[in-house]
Each structure stands twice: as C-alpha cells, then as structure tokens.
Design brief:
Layout: H1 3-15, E1 21-32, E2 42-58, E3 63-68, E4 73-78, H2 92-103, E5 111-117, H3 127-143, H4 149-164, H5 171-178, E6 183-188, E7 194-198, E8 203-209, H6 217-235, H7 245-250, H8 257-281, H9 287-304, H10 311-321, E9 326-331, E10 339-345, H11 349-364, E11 369-373, E12 380-383
Parallel strand pairs: 3-5
Antiparallel strand pairs: 1-2, 1-12, 2-5, 2-6, 3-4, 6-7, 8-10, 8-11, 9-10
Helix pairs in contact: 2-3, 2-4, 3-4, 3-5, 4-5, 6-8, 8-9, 10-11
This protein binds alpha-D-galactopyranose.
C-alpha cells in the first residue's frame, strides 16, 4: 500500500468521511554541494520518490485536528494559537508552516488532517523540509491562494529560521518544492536560479542509511556556519562563494587552520558541483565517471576539511566506492550520521545493494537501509 493510500484510509477511518485535498512533498537527496547553500554557493540535489502526504478537509470552526500516522499520535489546537509549547513536539513543523501563512495574512480555516510519510525521519533526507512544504501546499489550497514553487520553498526556510530555530540554507525546501522527475537541480543559492540537469540513462541513485542517528547536529551546523562567515570576513568577500583558491592561499597566514580548511571545502565543493553538473548533463560517454569522481572527492573534503562525517558514514562510503559499477559515493545532508548516496550503474544496482548492506552491518553492528530511487517531481496538491 502506498503512503498516499495509507493516509487516505486513515483519514476515512478517523473522520468518517473522505478528505477534500491531498498534498504531497518529497524528501531530497543531495548528489553534491554540501554545506555550500548557506555560503551563497551551488548545490545539486534531487527530489526523491519518498514523500510526506497530508489529507485534509476544512472545518467550519477554527480547530485543527492533526493525526500523525508515523508518530501514532494526534493533537488538537486552534489555528489562532499555533505556538503552544505543550503541544506534541512532532506537530511543531506542521504548526510552523501554518504560523508562517497566518503571519503573512493568509486567513486559514480550521481543518481535520492526517499526515504520514515514508521518508526516514532524522536521516538527512529532509523529512522536516517536506513537512514544511507539504503544509504550505495544504494551507494555500485551503485558502485558494497561489504562490510559486520557489516562494513555497522560501516559506519553508523561514519556518526553520523563525519557528524551529535552525539556521539552514535553502537547498532542502527548494528541492522538495521544485523537483522534476528524472532531473537533478543545479541551484545557485545566491540568485536562486535553478537549472534542471537530466539524470543520465543507465544510472541509479542509491541512498544508504547508516542507521547512525545524528547527535548534536544542530549546534555543530550553527558552528560551521559561523566559521564560514568568519573566514569570508577575513578573506574580504561577501560570502565564501566569492572566494577563490588563489585568494585563500594568499590569506593563509591570517586564517586559523580550522577556518582555512572550512573555506577550502566550500571553494573546492562549489567547483565540484559545477563539474558534476556539467558531466551529468554531457552526452559524451564518461560523464558518469567524472561526476562519480567529484562525489568521491566531495566526501574526502567533508571528512577532512569540513569535519562533518563520522565513522559510520566513512565506512559506508568506502564499502560503496569499492563495489563494481559504483561511479562514486559520498555522505549526503548535514552529516554526523544519516545517509550516504551513490551513483550506481543500473545493471549493477542489485548486486551493489546485496553486497553493501551485509559488509556494513558486519563492520559497524548497525542494520543499514538501502533505497534505490529515481529523481522525482516536487510538491503539489490534488483535490479528491
Ligand atoms: C541541511 C540543511 C541544508 C544544507 C545541508 C548541508 O540539510 O538543511 O540547508 O545546508 O544541511 O549541505
């Protein structure tokens, strides 16, 4: 049974009638361009086939009833009182999106809703961005207002910054709202220009969940962001996106070793994103190999210069990179646990998946989950 069907069934069971709307927002996997988004740089994510769905029906009063399939929990609150700290923690992301809409003058009705998804939670596949975007989709549909996909994404980013308190970049919400089937998105995180890069035939995206859950990621993330801002200031640039390797070398004795390495990661990662996007989009043979090498180099840089990998991610990436048919693998998302991603030859995927899991389990004692996915379409809403 698909998640959409589960959510629809649960709605009928709970509320004794059919929903009026079903909204959907996918998770994302970042192929390359890690920690570059908040440096005004380049990223190359794709929306994935796993998504959050919410089925809903407006009410005549201002009460919201929200049922979470994944958290086996439900809650009720008033659409006019969205930041009550006593409400369950899982409801904070959906409430944040409603809060954003209310703040922007969209006057929302109360509604009954069921939310559920198949994006593993806390694994670095942007389940929270998907919840924000899906609730923005739902809220807009309930009021009949329209917004561009980009603006829906930026709304989700503001929810993170202003309601959740996470200083994230724009990548996750942009991928969730703007994804295109069979395409990765080359996003310029300064201009917000998006170029669709067709995924080459013959390659599959394999997501490898290490089953190691990220600890302290929020504080480490905020620290990286501060380090980047400090390095940009010393280099005399607006953001590290504007720094060059030559400029970095010239300023080396004014930078601590940590700031030097953080900046080197961002500068080289932006170059690797461009190289990978070009290679994936090229019609000549060898593109996947070049892109795969960029993924491998990205991992080394995140591990050594940016220091956001961990033992489990390194083990997973090494095992993946050693398999026949693997063009390249790297950690994906904020790091410190969660998922790695690999580009794998379609014909080798089955053997890849069969081989990687057991070797990883033996080395770490953790049970990994591997998902094969194609790039998927971004968020939307349907009337049912
Ligand atoms: C998280 C953030 C993104 C991005 C990545 C790292 O997913 O939400 O904005 O910074 O980490 O690339």
């Amino acid at each position: 049974m698909t998640v959409r069907d589960t959510v629809l069934d649960r709605f009928r069971e709970q509320f004794d009638e059919a929903p009026a709307l079903v909204a959907r927002a996918p998770g994302r996997v970042n192929l390359i361009g890690e920690h570059t988004d908040y440096n005004d740089g380049f990223v190359l994510p794709a929306a994935i086939e796993r998504a959050v769905h919410v089925a809903a029906r407006p009410r005549a009063d201002s009460t919201v009833t929200l049922v979470s399939v994944d958290f086996h929990s439900d809650t009720q609150f008033s659409i006019d009182d969205l930041d009550d700290p006593d409400l369950p923690a899982w409801s904070k992301y959906p409430r944040g999106a409603l809060w954003w809409l209310q703040n922007r003058g969209h006057s929302l009705p109360g509604f009954d809703a069921v939310i559920g998804g198949d994006i593993p939670i806390g694994a670095g596949l942007s389940s929270s961005a998907a919840v924000e975007v899906v609730m923005i989709e739902l809220g807009l549909a309930l009021t009949g207002a329209e917004m561009s996909q980009q603006d829906k994404a930026l709304a989700g980013v503001e929810v993170e910054h202003q309601f959740i308190g996470m200083p994230c970049g724009v990548m996750d919400q942009m991928a969730s709202a703007m994804g295109v089937a069979q395409h990765a998105l080359l996003i310029d995180c300064r201009s917000l220009d998006v170029r669709q890069v067709k995924m080459p035939a013959g390659a599959s995206i394999v997501i490898m969940d290490t089953a190691k859950r990220r600890g302290l990621v929020d504080s480490a993330y905020a620290r990286r962001r501060e380090e980047c801002e400090a390095a940009a200031e010393i280099l005399g640039v607006e953001a590290l996106r504007d720094a060059t390797r030559d400029g970095l070398e010239a300023a080396r004795d004014r930078l601590s070793s940590v700031l030097y390495r953080r900046a080197r990661h961002i500068i080289t990662e932006n170059l690797r994103v461009q190289a990978a996007a070009l290679a994936l989009g090229s019609t000549h043979g060898g593109g996947l190999k070049t892109a795969g090498q960029a993924l491998r180099d990205s991992h080394a840089s995140l591990r050594d210069d940016y220091e956001v990998s961990c033992y489990e991610l390194d083990v997973m990436v090494d095992i993946a990179n050693a398999q026949a048919g693997c063009y390249g693998a790297r950690m994906t998302g904020a790091g410190f646990g969660g998922c790695a991603v690999a580009l794998v030859d379609e014909g080798a995927v089955e053997a890849f998946v069969a081989a990687v899991g057991p070797v990883y389990a033996e080395k770490t004692g953790l049970e990994p989950h591997l998902y094969v996915t194609q790039a998927a379409a971004g968020s939307g809403v349907e009337r049912v």
